[in-house]
């Protein structure tokens, strides 16, 4: 199923327009193959941040056994890879070197896995009667580089990640089948974990045009490709955007407070529901889900400095504060 659609974009620059056309072509193939498949979750143009690093993922497929990242490349001529793994793009009989898209996608994967691992206790179940926390170390992770249909590939070394765009769905199915054939003991996500991962990735998307701070305005891009380095002129926002947080020491105004869910990153770890309320228990504050009765730890993380924050209560409002002095409205319990 398509969890995040490709956002419409308009480009005047020919290179960026060609890059977006390649992404549209790949999105078409993925929708036709997995649009009705509940066990394949597809995200297009997903932009994630971890600390001061940003990765722009053209396409991401979440499946039962792991994640596939697909990097789309607009190639109307020929792309060649020599024996040393060096890439060259050819056009009008002129060749120009280019960075390896495979290495680029692997760096994006590394950042994504590190982000998921930061939140493993929220996203993954516990095993051995709740004594051991599952980790993402055993998760299958694959990258593919999709060349647009009109392009040609010349290989002098084996690059299994390099495929034509129309071959990507079949390659994804081969990856899933290979992981499934490993049988008992192989890493796999539970249904509840898949739901939590879908919600987490959806809320972690940060459209470039919403970044306002000096650091965020000039992010460290994981991709040097031109069509990834600038935001679209007027791309509509499709992903939920967290509300503006008040400055340190300043209480949120009435306009900044949502009736029951100020933070778009807070969901039930078991079912992904937003029907939560903050409760106090033996180990401190936690979130109680009205949909499945599951419990979720309150583990807010400061968006300004990345440090973990503590939760404090005042009436029905709960404020998160980090050691650096930043504070923001974390939650408002529903009335009654």
Would you spell out the secondary-structure blueprint of this structure?
Elements: E1 2-4, H1 14-34, E2 41-50, E3 53-63, E4 66-73, E5 78-81, E6 87-91, E7 94-98, H2 101-118, H3 120-123, E8 126-127, E9 132-133, E10 140-147, E11 152-155, E12 162-164, H4 168-180, H5 191-204, H6 214-217, E13 220-221, E14 276-281, E15 284-289, E16 295-297, E17 310-314, E18 317-321, E19 327-332
Parallel strand pairs: 1-2, 3-13, 4-10, 5-11, 10-12
Antiparallel strand pairs: 2-3, 3-4, 5-6, 6-7, 8-9, 14-15, 15-16, 17-18, 18-19
Characterise this structure:
Residues 210-264 have low confidence and may be disordered. The protein has six helices and 19 strands. With 336 residues, the protein is α/β, with parallel strands linked by helices. The strands form five sheets. Strands 1, 2, 3, 4, 10, 12 and 13 form a seven-stranded mixed β-sheet that branches. A four-stranded mixed β-sheet has the order 7-6-5-11, with no helix packed on it. A three-stranded antiparallel β-sheet has the order 14-15-16, with no helix packed on it. The longest helix is centred in the N-terminal third of the chain and has 21 residues, at 14-34. The protein is elongated, with a radius of gyration of 22 Å. It folds into two domains: 2-228, no CATH class; 254-332, no CATH class. β17 (310-314) and β18 (317-321) form a beta hairpin. It holds the Pfam family NERD. Residues 18-135 form the NERD domain. Residues 211-221, 254-263 have a biased composition (Polar residues). This is NERD domain-containing protein. Residues 224-238 have a biased composition (Low complexity).
């Amino acid at each position: 199923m398509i969890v995040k659609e490709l956002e419409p974009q308009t480009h005047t620059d020919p290179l960026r327009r060609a890059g977006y056309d390649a992404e549209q072509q790949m999105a078409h193939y993925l929708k036709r193959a997995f649009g009705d498949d509940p066990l394949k979750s597809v995200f297009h143009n997903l932009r994630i941040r971890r600390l001061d690093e940003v990765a722009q993922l053209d396409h991401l497929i979440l499946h039962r056994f792991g994640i596939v990242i697909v990097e789309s490349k607009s190639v109307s001529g020929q792309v060649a890879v020599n024996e040393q793994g060096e890439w060259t793009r050819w056009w009008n009989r002129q060749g120009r070197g280019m960075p390896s898209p495979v290495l680029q996608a692997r760096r994006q994967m590394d950042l994504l896995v590190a982000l998921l691992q930061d939140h493993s206790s929220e996203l993954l179940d516990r095993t051995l009667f709740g004594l051991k926390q599952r980790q993402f170390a055993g998760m299958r992770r694959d990258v593919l580089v999709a060349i647009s249909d009109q392009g040609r590939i010349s290989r002098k070394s084996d690059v299994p990640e390099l495929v034509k765009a129309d071959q990507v769905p079949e390659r994804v199915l081969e990856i899933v089948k290979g992981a499934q054939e490993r049988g008992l003991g192989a890493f796999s996500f539970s249904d509840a974990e898949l739901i939590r991962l879908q919600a987490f990735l959806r809320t972690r998307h940060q459209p470039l045009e919403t970044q306002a701070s000096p650091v965020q305005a000039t992010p460290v891009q994981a991709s040097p490709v031109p069509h990834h380095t600038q935001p679209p002129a007027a791309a509509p926002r499709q992903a939920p955007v967290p509300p503006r947080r008040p400055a340190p020491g300043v209480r949120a105004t009435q306009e900044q407070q949502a009736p029951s869910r100020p933070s778009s990153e807070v969901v039930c770890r078991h079912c992904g529901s937003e029907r939560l309320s903050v409760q106090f228990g033996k180990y401190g504050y936690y979130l109680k889900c009205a949909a499945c009765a599951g419990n979720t730890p309150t583990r807010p993380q400061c968006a300004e400095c990345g440090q973990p924050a503590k939760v404090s209560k005042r009436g029905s409002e709960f404020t998160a504060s980090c050691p650096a002095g930043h504070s923001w409205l974390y939650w408002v319990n529903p009335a009654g």
